[in-house]
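2024-03-11 09:14:02 INFO worker-7 job=invfold-0412 stage=load source=structure_tokens
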């Protein structure tokens, strides 16, 4: 029963994250990118701190360093994502961001020398084809928004990689809090650096940022952590990759975004690539388990 509730919880996370792409687009109507990020991560830091206050006792330098590294990657991913959203559509932004899952095995190969399986390579090739269909113009150039979103996927891929490594060594509550604080500090520095100090926010803008900070960041990260205790990593990753589908669905229903057949084809190929990459990782995990049992 707990497993099914956990799966339902992860599906809820993808729905909320899908709505986050629309909320970000709405927030950009009256707020600048780093204004959104500063408020979003301030809310998340305060709420995470209040929830994990007992865990913060005896925090170590290693935990701070690990959480900060995760926070830098998280900031890079969100910063490039929301800046890119100014120049592309929420649906493209959602599906190109989902490519982070395909990139993780290659990061592990570069840093940890982990072997890349055939399915991971197939997933990467399919992802490239999907990106081409979804984003390339007639003259085979990539728009600024799509290019920034592709780079943002690299940031999120590093955040996933760092999280998977550090959560085995340190307390999740502490890592989450330090991560959010780091992202907030970097957002605040960027806000001053880019001169985004003047706020003229509409009610819709405040509601959108409130959704992003409280619901899409704080609640979702806590819910995801709790649910993944009962669902294996591969299935969880496949479920969470569905945020791109909900992002597109909400863009059509709420923002009335126009979708072409070519975009649909590109999105389907990218989603298939993400699932294949996750299945490849899952197969590798099963093989390791079988070997350990034999030993």
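2024-03-11 09:14:09 INFO worker-7 stage=emit residues=295
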């Amino acid at each position: 029963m707990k497993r099914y509730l956990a799966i339902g919880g992860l599906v809820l996370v993808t729905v909320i994250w899908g709505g986050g792409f629309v909320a970000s687009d709405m927030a950009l109507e009256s707020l600048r990118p780093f204004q959104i990020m500063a408020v979003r991560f301030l809310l998340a830091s305060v709420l995470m701190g209040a929830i994990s206050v007992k865990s913060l006792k005896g925090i170590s330098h290693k935990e701070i360093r690990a959480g900060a590294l995760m926070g830098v990657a998280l900031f890079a991913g969100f910063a490039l994502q929301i800046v890119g959203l100014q120049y592309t559509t929420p649906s493209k932004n959602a599906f190109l961001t989902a490519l982070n899952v395909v990139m993780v095995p290659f990061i592990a190969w570069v840093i940890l020398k982990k072997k890349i399986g055939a399915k991971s390579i197939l997933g990467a090739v399919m992802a490239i084809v999907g990106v081409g269909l979804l984003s390339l113009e007639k003259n085979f150039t990539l728009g600024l928004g799509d290019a920034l979103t592709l780079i943002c996927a690299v940031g999120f891929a590093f955040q996933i990689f760092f999280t998977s490594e550090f959560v085995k060594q340190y307390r999740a509550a502490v890592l989450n809090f330090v991560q959010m604080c780091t992202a907030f500090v970097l957002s605040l520095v960027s806000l001053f650096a880019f001169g985004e100090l003047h706020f003229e926010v509409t009610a819709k803008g405040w509601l959108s940022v409130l959704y992003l900070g409280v619901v899409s960041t704080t609640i979702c990260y806590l819910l995801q952590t709790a649910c993944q205790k009962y669902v294996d990593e591969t299935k969880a990753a496949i479920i969470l990759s569905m945020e791109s589908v909900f992002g597109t669905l909400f863009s059509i229903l709420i923002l009335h975004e126009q979708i072409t057949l070519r975009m649909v084809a590109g999105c389907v190929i990218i989603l298939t690539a993400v699932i294949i990459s996750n299945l490849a990782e899952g197969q590798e995990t099963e093989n390791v388990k079988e070997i350990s049992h034999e030993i």
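2024-03-11 09:14:09 INFO worker-7 stage=report msg="DSSP finds twelve helices and no strands in the chain."
2024-03-11 09:14:10 INFO worker-7 job finished
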